[in-house]
Design brief:
Elements lengths: L1 E4 L9 H5 L4 E3 L5 E3 L23 E2 L5 H10 L5 E4 L4
Antiparallel strand pairs: 1-4, 1-5, 2-3
């Protein structure tokens, strides 16, 4: 499965990072981003976020699906989007 966050809708509540901290990360800009397992997917070489509006779509393990879905359902900004991964 794949997940991305629309930062224009993100309210910065951080619920996603609390529920699934290995999938979501709160940046110093106050917004949530997704990360690849073991590395931050959104961080550019300048240390600033490089992905916005779905460009930061990353894979996450099927074992994390329940927490990612819970994060999306509980998100007050309704900014977390889940889609099938590529085969």
């Amino acid at each position: 499965m794949r997940v991305w966050i629309d930062q224009d809708l993100c309210t910065g509540d951080g619920l996603c990072a609390e529920i699934a901290p290995d999938v979501f990360f709160m940046h110093s800009d106050g917004l949530a981003y997704v990360r690849q397992i073991g590395e931050v997917a959104w961080l550019g070489t300048d240390g600033e976020p490089k992905y916005k509006m779905g460009d930061g779509t990353v894979d996450f393990p099927d074992a994390r699906l329940d927490d990612v879905v819970t994060s999306a359902e509980d998100c007050p900004g309704e900014c977390i989007f889940i889609e099938p991964g590529e085969d």
